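Deliverable D5.2: sample structural annotation.
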Amino acid sequence: MNYHIKNINKKALVFLPIIGLGLFLLFSQPAEAKPKTAPEKIKVIMIGDRLVDVAFNLGVLPEAMSVRCSLWPMCKQLLNTSQVLGCPKCIVNKNPSIVPNTAKKRGIKRIIIEKHPNFCIYKPKVKPANVVPLLEGKGLTIEYVDFSNGLESAIRQTAKLLGCQSKADALIDRYNKALAKAKKGLPKAGLGKKVVIINGTYQSATGKTFLRVEMPGGYSDRFLLEPLGCINVGDVLKSPNKKVNKGHFSIRKLDALTIAKPDVIIMTGKPFAVQKALATAMKNNPALANVPAIKNTAIYSLPFYADSSVIEYPAILRQWTDALSN
């Protein structure tokens, strides 16, 4: 979805006249990589979002899957196509019978599992393979795709298991060209900008907004800010009593932006929620007008990346580069 300025609710930009600035420069979400034809759905359960992302880009989707839906934006696009059984932690700890029961109910005999040395940096103990003991003796064939040797190897492994080896070279070539182009656009010297990343949620039924700030050391730092030589200063907004969950902490007031003084504010999730919160904050605290990101209208809506949309990573990196290089 493109977040063009003409489609933004005017209430979300009410603070602009207050600070005498022009319009926000909002970057739209990058187009997800999509097969030229509708993906083929096969009788397989896949466990791991990187695995499903690669399979999707090879033109195949599983009948059911276990993925980190809260971190992988593409999950919501696939909900009506492939049954989501829960995240890899949930299918082991919260609902240990869901994978074998789904396989039995749907007549599925194959389970393909992602192996990755750092499956989730937020939950280091969570591994897709943790489900294996729950599947033993169920008459299921368990297969693996190992990502530890790089994405190209994982693409070839996946293509072989799915019987579409002829598509592997084209996908690898497309990815490598996109990544080379993205890396070519990186600044030769680090930008040195201070950044705050705010994830927004908006409840249309109540009109309430919820904000979470990304802590330093997370996915955005590793895959996006570090290549650009930028610094995450989101921790400055964190009060001592706030707990960090999945690399983020919740926040109600944005007054601490005057202390963090970010050069750039990145909005992930629902940008309207962040825009609305900023509008309210500006009314209550005019000093926010002096925050560099607000003063210079360096506020961008960008896609969140949690190392799930591996094929789409070059497009996401290019978008962050375009935004932060301004």
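Annotation notes: The domain at 5-30+185-324 is CATH 3.40.50.1980 (Rossmann fold). The longest helix spans residues 168-184.
The annotation will be released with the project's public dataset once the embargo ends.
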